[in-house]
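Marked as duplicate of an earlier ticket. Keeping the data here for the record.
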Amino acid sequence: MTEIETDVLVLGGGPAGAWAAVSAAASGAAVVLVDKGRCGSSGPTAFGTTSLWNISPGPARDDAVRHAYAHGGGLGDPDRMLRVLEETHLRVEQLVRWGFRFPGTGRRGAGSAKPSAAGRTTPCVRLDGASYLRRMRRSVLDAGVRVLDHHPALQLLVDRDGVVAGATGVQQHNRFRSWTVRAGAVVVATGGCAFLSGGAGTNVDTGDGLLLAAEAGAELSGMEFSNAYGLEPMLNSRMIPGFALRAATLYDESGAVIIGHRSAAFAAIADGRRVYAALEDLPYAMRCWLAGRGVPDQIGRVPVRAVLEGTVRGTGGLSVSGSDCATTVAGLYGAGDVTTREAITGAVSGFGGHGGSWAIASGVWAGAGAAGFACRRGRRGPVGAVPGAGLNPDARIDPRAVVGLVQEHTLPLRRSYWRSAGSLRDSIGELDSMWPGAEFGLGGSGPDRLRARQAAALLAVARWTKYSALARTESRGMHRRTDHPAAAADWRVRLMSGGLETVWVRPDVRRPEVEEPATVQRAPAAADLTAADPLPL
């Protein structure tokens, strides 16, 4: 068994985890980063283009914040948006100093105009995800961070005061032997949950970080906004990123152009009709790849399918507060898609660069916050593992049965894209009845142990999303209720959730009422922002 002691432990090696590790190391902390896959080459970012919400200070930034607040249904936080924009701008410059080049924007990574859902333009930087992650891995290693690839975390460690003090997991490449890292603080950056839908790079996004944090007492927020769908080419190989279809013309099976694009396409697919994308609208490299495999039909159309992206492109996740992205559990910090992005995106998806910028900003803030907490905490005493679901030594339930039930109630458009009290209660009844057996019947050793834990996480996340969607009796953003089709003024609140045996949902009473910004206050100077100073090369 591998046993390590460090100041800060980062769980996850995507963009948020990498920025958290570099930020914590820049604060003087000893850092260990463990990743379920390989840091720098796994996860959704590695399989597509990443966008960053990067806008220089000035009127354009103020206008972007006002637009994002309105587009998000009034659930965002203008002040937090400004801080994210400021942090992103600083870190884009940091990437340039590291030698990273932004395709099509020059070395400085200036924002390019990108059409928004409302037809306006939003400055957005696009960069190749694989190149971005390779650069971040080099930066992590250059910062002196110890990186442990293929080391999925299964449980958090806590001390006698209930403060998070490390984690334990298994080594996939070493006969699934155990590892333990004791730390002064932990940053969870394990990504969201896509329910094993087959989206490009989302096979590692099974909600593990959400479950282990909730088992330690962490609370979640915005889980009803976790039903984001994408469109992908209908192939046996499901590793084609759906972003390539966002600008493509869509047709139904009769050959008519689909008006309304995505929502109308989802409606057609839900009704059992075929939907196609125009091959000529796809990137050149993808056109050649698809044509070589005989995918397009005789008139140059590619069949597409709807893929649930869950909380990866959605919004819900761990509730974080303050300038350091601390969760509701002492010693535990969150960054990236594992956290809620309501403050930045409100009730809509963060696909248009907001999610990429949040990964940077939250990573920097969480890394610095965890390093500061570990320094203040000092020496640690005895620790113990938080008891977790699906970790029994013997398996009495096949995890495939659990995953199958979860997917039955999450993947179909009729279950997640459109919702009603009847369908939600039906799903809740089925999922709740599975939980006791899954909690105590899932387990095993070796790879079965990891599969059982993933199944338990998928089930837990599905229950939080269904309960939260049932509680919000309105339609707002990506949350669509067929029995409550309009937005309600008294529902401009965020919903907290949590619990395992018994799931609970309640309004966030800690959040003060935020008025729509008539004028936007300037973000504080860079020196006043958490970890805003340039990170060392």
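See parent ticket for discussion. Residues 447-471 form the longest helix (25 residues).
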